[in-house]
Amino acid sequence: MTVTAPRLLFLHGFLQNAKVFSEKSSGIRKLLKKSNVECDYLDGPVVLDRKDLPFEMDDEKWQQALDAQVNKAWFYHSDVSSELDLSDSIKYVSDYIKQNGPYDGIVGFSQGAALASIVTNKITELNPEHPEFKVSVLISSYSFTEPDPSKPGQLRIAEKFQSGFTPKKDSKTRVIFIYGASDQAVPAVRAKYLAQIYKDAWTQDPEQVQEYEHPGGHMVPNKKDIIRPIVDQINSAMNA
């Protein structure tokens, strides 16, 4: 019987691409390679124009972004969660998994982590022949929230995305959250909010949801003392 190597699908962040995410996550990727784990990096289907950016970028930097082909995303940015549309990207990732899978897990950064969370929760619906992931690694992750009309001053998952961010009660997927204490783009509190959703759904196994905070900002940590225990968790989940 042929034993295939474990495989992980990586989803980059906003204004990145597969190549850049591979470079940014090189510490984790190289440690995983030592464990014979295959890392597959996918480009997002959205091609950004300058007008699509939620911040100003001068001519020189925008040209550099075009030259490096990092004007990629999974969905167009909006501060209003109900305006977001992930339907094309969910189908894009699902089709890719059908054609190139199966995968033992998924890894996402920032915008890619938000999408990876939904794909993690929905994988067996999107592709009934694909088993649920053994592990889902969400780096600088967040969910799509809106003010809760029944609880003034509090947030809830936006109504159109509530099913996407609802974990299956009987899931055995191990979910690993990695977030930066100094992250200004996606404050750690947003990752913790999403982590709590999983914790509340999976009270039967407190070890199923793991959280790792690093001192940096909006980035993938690469220092070995930070990433070694994370990679150990990934390997443990895939070998369980």
From TrEMBL:
Cellular component, GO, one term: cytoplasm
A Pfam family reported for this protein in Swiss-Prot or TrEMBL: FSH1
Lineage: superkingdom: Eukaryota
Signal peptide range in chain numbering: none
Gene Ontology molecular function: hydrolase activity
Serine hydrolase domain ranges (all copies): 4-229
Gene3D superfamilies for the chain: alpha/beta hydrolase
Keywords: Hydrolase
PANTHER family per the UniProt record, alphabetical: ESTERASE OVCA2 (PTHR48070), FAMILY OF SERINE HYDROLASES 1 (PTHR48070:SF9)
Name this polypeptide is given: Serine hydrolase domain-containing protein
